[in-house]
Amino acid sequence: MPAAIATQGFGADVKRVRLARRLTQKQLGNATGYSEGYVSRVEAGKKSPSEKFAAGCDLAFGTGDLFSEQLRRILYGERVPEWFAPYVELEAKADRILDYSPVFPMGILQTEAYARAVFRAGPLAAKGEDTTPSLAARLDRKALLDRPTPPLLWVVLTESCLRTPVGGPALMQEQLGYLARLAEHPRVTLQVLPYRAGAYPCTTPFTLLRSGGWCAYSEFPVGGRSYDAQDFVTECMDLFDLIRARALGPDESVSFIQEISEDHRNG
């Protein structure tokens, strides 16, 4: 469904529920923190609603997360699975991101060719589904680092993550070269946890994100989930500290990435 039509449908639904609740546009605007004119334009399909407005509608109407979920489907559609959409929203708002990548570099650190190869080997392709929308969504997320003030990003990658031959030697050289260049970004810190560090403290990828407060995200074989329970977040933070303490320093990590790239070149 085209986004413009979906937005019109959202506006019509807001109007329908507002009238059923006997609220004026001004009252809904006051309840959501927006002007009467803003509400009018959203209802007419002339203004794309914000996530804050959708959440405000749910609160004002007592509709749970109905409008938030509807907006999420409009924004992401089939580009990301429903279980991953909350992470994408968190990532977009975060000012600090700590990531542990034991299998593949996190999505925003992948080149287009590498990401395409990862999707080609994944469950979507195995089921015969089109991976193009998911690839486009992943590449769009890379714009995060091009903002005037991008989030502070600290990533620990395992050596196996860098040595696994995704897509072949040439593709791996391109990917590792990209990582080495990203490490020069003033808001990015990369570390490598080498084989010689011994058993990995954790084999599951996870990400910590700060947007106001901290939350954690972890993936499973068939999905992922975000957590904001502070006990869980603290456990993940402690685990991340343990992992990065055992990893190579940032400068040594870049040199090591370049060495592994040469290993891919030489076969």
Automatic annotation (TrEMBL):
Residues 14-50 form the HTH cro/C1-type domain. InterPro entries: Cro/C1-type_HTH, DUF5753, Lambda_DNA-bd_dom_sf. CDD domains: HTH_XRE. It holds the Pfam family DUF5753. GO terms for molecular function: DNA binding. This is HTH cro/C1-type domain-containing protein. It comes from Streptomyces qinglanensis.
